[in-house]
Specification:
Blueprint lengths: L10 H12 L12 H12 L3 H19 L4 E8 L2 E2 L2 E2 L2 E4 L7 E8 L9 H19 L10 H17 L4
Parallel strand pairs: 1-5
Antiparallel strand pairs: 2-3, 4-5
Helix pairs in contact: 2-3, 4-5
Length: 168
């Protein structure tokens, strides 16, 4: 069942939405070998070491995009989440172009208390933003929508990563 905003989409967008909704898994070849990277992210986050989180997350991202044979993504890990009356921003995906690689930005501390976020929350934010990248690069979708299929793909990736590591 499409989400409510589906009715506001044009016909081409609806076709893209429907294609996205039909894709429910993203098998990552060799996902079991990612435990070192997953654990490194968890350990760096528990130490509240932004630079170490950045390095570990970039290694994890590089390994995943290489395994899936898609264009790499530049990771940017920042401190406290930006917040306003609209809420908190946890992650951001910016598609690449001819001159720049795609970029994922994640924030590792809560906006209010400025404490490191829980590992699983942080990892899910990264995976969520990576799914946007994969919509374009792996599935060749014209747009990236939050469909039920999108969230199933996100959960499928999380299951593979958490099965690969002990963090969390």
């Amino acid at each position: 069942m499409p989400f409510a905003y589906y009715q506001n989409l044009g016909q081409a967008q609806k076709r893209t939405y429907d294609r996205s909704d039909a894709i429910v898994e993203i098998p990552v070849p060799g996902a079991g070998s990612l435990s070192t990277e997953v654990d490194a992210v968890a350990q760096a986050l528990s130490r509240d070491d932004r630079a170490a989180v950045q390095r570990a997350l970039q290694r994890l991202c590089d390994a995943m995009t290489a395994a899936l044979r898609v264009a790499p993504v530049q990771l940017k890990t920042l401190a406290a989440r930006p917040a306003d009356d609209w809420g908190e921003l946890q992650g951001l995906y910016q598609a690449g172009d001819d001159d720049n690689a795609a970029q994922i930005t994640v924030w590792m501390r809560t906006a209010q208390r400025r404490q490191p976020v829980a590992f699983r929350t942080f990892l899910r934010t990264f995976v969520h933003e990576l799914c946007h990248h994969l919509d374009f690069e792996l599935f060749k979708l014209d747009d990236t929508f939050h469909t039920e299929g999108f969230f199933k793909r996100e959960s499928h990736l999380m299951h593979q990563l958490l099965g690969a590591g002990e963090g969390g």
